[in-house]
Amino acid sequence: MPILPGESADLYLASLDTLIEELGARSVLQVNLSEKIHECLCWMRCYEEQKRSTVSLEMASELNSGFTRKTLAQAEQIRNLFMANKVDAEIEEALIDERHTLESLRQEAMVNKRVALLELDQHIALVVGN
After folding, report:
1. What pLDDT is recorded for position 1?
2. 54, CA 20 to 30 Å: which among 21, 38, 115, 123?
3. Contacts 24+ apart (CB under 8 A), 56-60
4. Domain ranges, ordered by start, for the chain
5. What is the pLDDT of residues 14-36, one digit of tens each?
């Protein structure tokens, strides 16, 4: 069971039970296959969240690089807003000042982190392939 520190075993088991029910798994083989599918889905979700975090952190870093007056707390606040898919007036102002749109900043972050994103994609492929 791929439960990582900080994750809820109860939620994991509840989602597994839901999947087994949705698939109508009754035999031992069906339940085992359902468990494997669930495990793959969990790992894929974990890696996808890591990719999103990587891009969001890079976006915040890029946006903060032009603003040396920003404190560490402000930089973290910007990262948290990106992670929550929220853009406030301060971020919009910073985007304009840096001659970026949200999309161009995201593209730049993805280019800057392409190696890390590729590695995460490879991890997903390895986990799902096993």
Report:
1. 52
2. 38
3. 56/82, 56/83, 56/109, 58/109, 58/110, 58/112, 58/113, 59/105, 59/106, 59/108, 59/109
4. 43-129
5. 999 999 999 999 999 999 999 99
